[in-house]
Write a structure and sequence with these properties.
The structure holds three protein chains of three kinds. Chain B has two helices and four strands; from the N terminus they run βαββαβ. Chain B is of the alpha+beta class. Classes of the chains: A alpha/beta, B alpha+beta, C mainly alpha.
Chain lengths: 419, 92, 200
């Protein structure tokens, strides 16, 4: 498969300059031709890459229509916060292909009629920010006010209403929806919040057309996607054809030749879910297929768990971190995630209370869907998939206070993360 | 408090609708950020609102039947922080 | 109307207003503190608080009207509306006037709560901490009964009740909301589960 998003100079060469970018891809469509981008995107079937997988064309259309109804100019917010700790594709894309992302942002602004662009970049992604800043000064085709906003390095800061809230009031915590950003966002105006990878892909679709986009893709879902591989593998970013089986990715990323080599796979990051290696090896990396299979593509993280690590302890670490990352606005999330994290830690450390697993299942059901944002749902997904995939290990911990793996991985006697 | 596993109030009421009548399009929704777990809404509308283990409301799906509309309005009015809303077409 | 009757009405309505105002203040404090028991559900605190507040308006109106209309007192309308405009004990009457203004602000914002939003309503409601003490001070100093034993007893009871409610409120500690960040971080214990009043 020919690379698309990452086509061009190799990673070692660093950020692609504007002359090289233009030489390779030509000029970007603007003005009247930019307005044809929305139908193009809708026909291409491009799905958002921030984690929700919402169709990109439909999102742009909603913003444009809302703005027309309200008689207001919308705002484009480029979401490069990437708060998911296991994911690094967005900062990598920004670092290597800043002009592709900027193209996408400018095309989006033209297409929806925006008069302003906010580049919401994680404050901890310094190389990405530097590359972006330099890229902006290189260009001569920016006719809108455009600025880089430093997103706080928290997990929820990348949530779309949190991003808007931060630009409006300096507070990167989610707000109550409705109204969603596409209805009322920055300055009360319809706001298009779009992930950097989605914008980069849109920049290519607007040049080459939907037919070109649909040429790749192994199954029903077209296109390519960036995957962050991590865990018991060679960490790195891979651009894959959507529908590539995980087995193929595992082979290419040094994550083992067969499912026996790994215990399980975490898809979508902390926010995602576990799948046993046996099952995962045959699954295609396709958002639609994964959703039908009861798991999720999310933000494209594929993390491999080695055979020598306790899944329950790993889950305990993740849940403890997620509980601490709550925006602390909604009771069910704060109390629920903390209760879940503490109970899981007890079980992981081999000191469970009698009903801990039953309580965890009860709380998971109580908490799901009852926060202002999806953070508690992510934690619940993490927990429930762990209970399912590491079922035997959970039982061993809960009933017999034992762990198949002895002491492993940075947890103290209380099952809490050691510094 | 009865012994045994706690159940939701509506689990103990005959399905599908305790007071009869079609569910109207009036919907109850909680502003999760404003809600501070006072729990007065659940006291006034136990048919539709239950409390989780920390005192925060869990709202039953399906909208508010006509027969319960007055009770729902009273529950909305009592909330000390105006977190409960009753509206047509509001997404819960 | 005999001037004696008006004078009784003024003092009587005033004292009832003070008592009602004090009960309203107690209930407000108890509501925030989430007071409840098996025979007194939480919603009652809020609903009775609101009903009594409106009732106290009626008695307050009688108190003010009869005071103004009473030819003996020479108070006149201006005294009831402008602080310090009274020729009779201007400062003491003014305490009452200001208290009424604060109470009026609280009541009006409460009636318009839906339109104003919670935060605006709450800001105005802080005036309660000024309005009630002003009412107490007015009732002891402005009227001719001020230092009578029975009047002091009634006032003392009101002060004791509100003081006890305030103590209860402070003991209940921080509301859920202010505790959330510490609980999320794992540095504070979560609130006890299962409220006493359940809908069984």
């Amino acid at each position: 498969m020919d690379l698309r998003l990452l086509a061009g100079p190799p990673a070692a060469a660093g950020p692609e300059s504007w002359p090289d970018h233009r030489a390779r891809l030509g000029g970007r469509p603007d003005g009247p031709s930019a307005r044809g981008t929305i139908p193009s995107l809708e026909a291409s079937g491009l799905l958002g890459r921030g984690g929700a997988g919402f169709p990109v064309g439909r999102k742009w259309r909603s913003v444009a229509e809302r703005a027309a109804e309200a008689g207001a100019r919308p705002v484009v917010l480029v979401n490069g916060a990437e708060g998911e700790p296991l994911s690094s594709k967005d900062r990598t894309l920004l670092r290597l292909r800043p002009h592709l992302v900027l193209d996408g942002a400018l095309i989006a602004a033209d297409a929806v009629g925006a008069d302003r662009i906010e580049l919401y970049i994680g404050s901890e992604h310094r190389d990405a920010r530097l590359a972006l800043r330099r890229a902006i000064t290189e260009r001569s085709d920016i006719r809108l006010p455009l600025r880089i906003v430093d997103a706080p390095a928290t997990y929820v800061a990348g949530e779309e209403s949190a991003a808007v809230h931060f630009v409006n009031e300096g507070d990167a915590r989610p707000t109550t929806t409705p109204p969603r950003p596409f209805e009322r966002g920055i300055g009360g105006r319809p706001t298009l919040v779009q992930n950097v990878e989605s914008l980069a892909a849109a920049a290519l679709v607007s040049r080459r057309g939907p037919g070109w986009y649909r040429e790749t893709g192994r199954g029903a879902t077209p296109g390519t996607a960036l995957i962050t591989v991590t865990g018991a593998a060679n960490d790195g970013i891979h651009e894959i054809e959507i529908g590539t089986p995980i087995a193929e990715l595992a082979g290419a990323a040094g994550a083992g030749a067969s499912p026996d080599d790994r215990q399980a796979v975490l898809l979508g990051g902390y926010f995602g879910g576990w799948v046993s290696a046996d099952r995962a090896w045959r699954l295609p990396l396709d958002p639609v297929a994964l959703r039908d299979a009861g798991t999720a593509f999310g933000c494209g993280v594929v993390a491999f768990l080695g055979n020598g690590i306790c899944g329950v302890r790993t889950t305990a670490r993740i849940l403890d971190w997620m509980a601490g990352q709550s925006a602390a606005q909604c009771g069910p999330c704060v109390f629920g995630l903390r209760a879940i994290a503490d109970a899981t830690a007890r079980v992981a450390a081999g000191r469970p209370e009698r009903d801990d697993v039953a309580r965890l299942e009860r709380w998971a059901e109580q908490i799901a869907g009852r926060g202002a944002c999806r953070h508690p749902d992510g934690a619940v997904g993490q927990l429930l998939s762990s209970l399912q995939v590491f079922n035997a290990e959970w039982k061993l911990h809960q009933r017999h206070r034992q762990c198949s793996f002895g002491h492993s991985g940075g947890l103290d006697a209380d099952g809490r993360r050691v510094a | 408090m009865p012994a045994g596993p706690p159940t939701r109030t509506w689990d103990r009421i005959d399905q599908p609708n305790p007071t009869g009548g079609r569910a109207t399009r009036a919907q109850l929704a909680v502003d999760r950020i404003a809600c501070d777990g006072y729990g007065m809404c659940a006291e006034l509308l136990p048919e539709l609102i239950d409390l989780d283990d920390w005192g925060y409301p869990i709202i039953r799906d399906g909208g508010v039947p006509d027969a319960l509309l007055d009770h729902a309005r009273r529950a909305v009015a009592v909330c000390p922080v105006l977190a409960l809303r009753l509206a047509r077409d509001v997404r819960p | 109307m005999s001037t004696q009757l008006l004078w009784f009405a003024t003092r009587g309505a005033g004292i009832v207003s003070l008592i009602l105002f004090s009960v309203v203040a107690c209930l407000g404090l108890l509501a925030v503190a989430r007071a409840q028991s098996t025979w007194w559900p939480r919603f009652l605190t809020v609903e009775v608080h609101r009903s009594l507040a409106l009732l106290s308006v009626a008695f307050l109106a009688v108190h003010i009207l009869t005071a103004v209309l009473d030819p003996f007192t020479h108070l006149g309308l201006a005294a009831a509306i402008l602080p310090l405009a009274s020729s009779y004990r201007p400062v003491q009457v003014a305490l009452g006037v200001v208290s009424v203004y604060f109470a009026a602000a609280m009541i009006i914002t409460s009636l318009l709560r839906d339109r104003l939003g919670h935060r605006a309503w709450r800001t105005v409601h802080w005036l309660a901490y000024a309005a009630w003490p002003l009412a107490v001070a007015h009732s002891i100093t402005a009227g001719s009964d001020g230092i009578a034993v029975w009047m002091l007893a009634v006032t003392g009871l009101c002060v004791f009740a509100v003081g006890a409610a305030l103590f209860y409120r402070l003991e209940a500690g921080r509301t859920n909301r202010s505790r959330l960040p510490a609980v999320a971080a794992g540095t504070a214990a979560p609130i006890p589960t299962e409220p006493a009043w359940r809908n069984d």
